Amino acid sequence: MDLIRDILKHLNSQEVKRLKAQIKNNPHEFEKVGFLFDLILKYPEKPEDFFAQKLYGKAADNSFRVTKARLKRMMEDLLIGEKSLKEYDADYIIAHLTVKKRLLQGEILMGRGAYPASKNILEQVITMARKYHFIDEGFQAQMLMFRHNCSSLNAADLMREVDDLKNLSLKAASLHEAGLLYYQLSAHLATTTLKKAAEFKDARKIMERLKAIWDFTNAPMAGFYFLKIAIYYTQITSEFKDARAYGQQLLELVRTEPALKSKQREGAALLQMSEICLRAGELSRAHTFSKATLKLYHKDEINYLISLETAWRIAFMQNDLELANQHIAAADDHPSIHLSKMRAGRWKYYHAVMAFKMNAFKKCILLLNEATSVMSDKLGWNIAFRLLEIMALFESQQTDVIDAKIENFRQFVKRNKHDDEYVRAALLTDLLHVWHKNQYDFKKAEEFIHDGILKIKAYHSKVPFNPASFELIRFDNWIEAHA
Predict the structure, then answer these.
(1) Angle in degrees, CA 111, 116, 117, rounded to 5
(2) Distances (CA, A) of 343 to 276, 287, 291, 419
(3) Rounded Cα gap, residues 377 and 410, in angstroms
(4) This prediction's pTM
(5) pLDDT digit string, tens, across residues 266-300
(6) Structure letter (DSSP) for residue 420
(7) What domains sit in the chain, N to C, each tagged with a CATH number?
(8) SS3 content of the chain, % helix, strand, coil (to 5)
(9) Which of 130, 361, 432, 481 has its CA 20 to 30 A from that of 248?
């Protein structure tokens, strides 16, 4: 049942209606399947035996499993139906499905000896493969034709065909390599800021290889991989002018290339531009790109919820609290908000930040209690969560529990002190220690706090504070204001 539920969560309302209509139009063949589907819609979280009892009056057996398998297959087939593909709004998806079907048809006809008909289909495949840069399918179609024709070719034509196929196979292999390199480096860049020289060197080497693959294959997908990695890299290295240039190039690529053109990829490119501008401190431009991103997605899509996080951070940093609250309300109403504990926890954290900003400190603490899932992320979220909790506890005059929270924070930073990401956290620990030692008396600790703030400012003169950080209420600013 888990697989059926997983698919169901990612069908839109029109697809659910179409599946109902399909079952209704075949009442005899799909009577049990229709009953099961109605029950799942009504009771999505019930266990398997509940549905088996309703359908067959007994625990799940082979008959129930057959019915369940039929429903799952119908749901899967729906995804590649013509209407669903059109709703996806990406011609290359429809073209890819068509090419794969035609390739198989051409191979079957060739196997049956219908050579003219097979050749006609395979030539169509090659034409479409070139238009959309389906290198694998183009190679397979040409290989099938070569396999049939090779015995009748003269030596010169034979070698020319072999060379063409070798070149095409190299391009296909290179494109697969580009995909592997992209996911390898993007995963690494998501958890590091490249403090070590060797990391910079390795990242640059992969970027250069991706660019070489793009030049060799001329495949838009290779360009997509290179530009995305270049954007990640230049954001980390604070080369925002280069990041914007790469971002604009990516946006143009996904808007003009048939092999990439889709609202999903255009939305991803626009979101990337909003993140670049956010990190560069260009909040007005970030807001413009963020609005354009949200307009591309239906409000029930998961990509809308993902984009909404960036929109919220921009609104909060612009001090547009009304818009920030609207984004929180939209997230709370989103059907996918609870599919991921981490994502649900992040939105509770954003809500807690809003509560702190509006001086609702006790509400902030209650919301943080619902956001503890973010602490599973050791980089960024954990620190931001702990600091906000300490500030909220002090502001709500719950100083009796701050001692333990500060000690926990100190131990957490100590365990991770080898990581360059925790330099700022270590400096904040010194501030916390002095403040704690003076019984949270800002006047007594004023001189020490002042010195600590100077150290943090000196650090950020070399390593700028990241505006896209999860530490949305900065502890150093808060304690400086009090002191």
Answers:
(1) 70
(2) 22, 22, 21, 25
(3) 17
(4) 0.76
(5) 999 999 999 999 988 899 999 999 999 999 988 88
(6) G
(7) 2-87 (no CATH), 91-152 (no CATH), 338-483 (1.25.40)
(8) 80, 0, 20
(9) 130
